[in-house]
Amino acid sequence: MRLNIVLVEPEIPQNTGNIARTCAATDSVLHLVGPMGFSISDKHLKRAGLDYWDDVEVHYYNSFLEVQEKFPQAQYYFATTKAPHNYAEVAYEDDCFLVFGKETKGLPEPLLQAHLADCVRIPMIGEMRSLNLSNAVAIVTYEYYRQKGFVTFQQKGKLE
To answer: HSE-up of 73 (CA within 13 Å, CB side)?
Structure first.
C-alpha cells in the first residue's frame, strides 16, 4: 500500500523539494511530469528536500498521458479548487494516484472535465484561490494514510 503523488509541470523547486521530503516521510512514490520550471539539479530543489532524496522513489515523464499509459488500471484523484468533492469525503483506494497541477494554473481544464467525478478540493474560506502546492500535497497525503490507519508509521515519539 503506497500512495503515488503526481506533480504535473511543477514550477517552484522549493515546493517540489518539500513534497519529496513528504514522500520520504510517508514512503509515497513521486511522479514528476514535465516540462518543469526548474532543473532537477537545482540547488533550491536539493536544499528543500534536504538529505531525503535518496529515500524517495522518483519517476519522470514528459506528459501526464505517459503516467496514465504506464498505470492504466490505477485510480486517479485530481486536486483542484474547482472540484465538487471535499478531499476528506473520498475513500481512497490503495496505491492510488493523487494528481496536482502547477503552482500558477493548476491542472488543465480539459483533464479536470474528463475526470470531474474524481476531482477533490481542500476547503478554504471565502474566495481564496489556492493553498501552497507543498501544503496541499501534505494535507491530502496525510488524509490518505489516516484512512489506511497509518499502518507502517511510527505512532509515538519520545522525549529524551
So the answer is: 2
Strand ranges across the sheet with 97-100: 58-61, 29-33, 4-8, 97-100, 76-79, 119-121, 85-86
As to burial, measured by CB atoms within 10 angstroms (0-12 exposed, 13-18 middle, 19+ buried), residue 135 is middle
- For residue 12, what is the domain's CATH number? 3.40.1280.10
Task: Establish if 50 belongs to a structural domain.
Answer: yes
User: Considering only CA atoms, which of 89, 88, 108 is closest in space to residue 99?
Assistant: 108
The span from the CA of 156 to the CA of 61, in Å, is 37
Helix (H) or strand (E) holding 49: helix 43-49
**pLDDT tens by residue, 101-156:** 999 999 999 999 999 999 999 999 987 888 999 999 999 999 999 999 988 877 77
pTM over the 0.85 mark: yes
